[in-house]
């Protein structure tokens, strides 16, 4: 268990950024699930309703889908870039600590 605690200690300086990356990944997943539901609504409900405002409703839903895709892209880029950044910083901290223990770095 001490190895696990030691590993978790490397997250401590980057806790805020790590939480932001986790929240971003949840948003990416949730937004990916919303799109098929919207398509099913268009094909299963709107097109079969015979309402005269079907085209207007499809346009509104299309705009909403475009906004969702843009948000998903933004959160995905943030997740990829900052997630890698957190990992690289932790790796740097681990290497620094290891080299300090071996006496190769004098601080």
Describe this structure in words.
- With 107 residues, the chain is mostly helical.
- The protein has one domain.
- 85% of the residues lie in helices and 0% in strands.
- The chain contains three helices and no strands.
- α2 runs antiparallel to α3.
- The longest helix is centred in the last third of the chain and has 48 residues.
- It is rod-shaped.
- Helices and strands: which structural class? mainly alpha
How large is the share of residues in beta strands? under 5%
Total domain count? 1
Number of helices: 3
Query: What's the SSE pattern?
Result: HHH
The pLDDT mean sits at 90
The strand count comes to 0
Which spans have pLDDT < 50 for at least 5 consecutive residues? Answer: none
Sum up the overall morphology in one term: rod-shaped
User: What is the rounded distance between the termini?
Assistant: 29 Å
Largest β-sheet summary: none
The radius of gyration is: 23 Å
Helix % is: over 70%
What does the secondary structure layout of this molecule look like, with pairings?
Elements lengths: L1 H8 L5 H35 L4 H48 L6
Short synopsis of the structure:
The protein has helices at 2-9, 15-49, 54-101. It is mainly alpha-helical and 107 residues long.
List keywords for this structure.
107 residues; mainly alpha
């Amino acid at each position: 268990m001490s190895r696990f605690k030691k590993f978790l200690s490397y997250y401590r300086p980057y806790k805020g950024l790590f939480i932001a990356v986790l929240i971003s990944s949840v948003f990416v997943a949730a937004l990916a699930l919303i799109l098929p539901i919207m398509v099913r609504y268009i094909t299963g409900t709107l097109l079969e309703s015979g309402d005269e405002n079907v085209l207007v409703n499809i346009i509104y839903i299309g705009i909403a889908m475009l906004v969702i895709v843009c948000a998903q892209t933004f959160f995905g880029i943030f997740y990829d870039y900052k997630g890698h950044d957190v990992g690289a910083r932790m790796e740097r901290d681990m290497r620094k600590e290891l080299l300090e223990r071996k006496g190769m770095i004098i601080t």
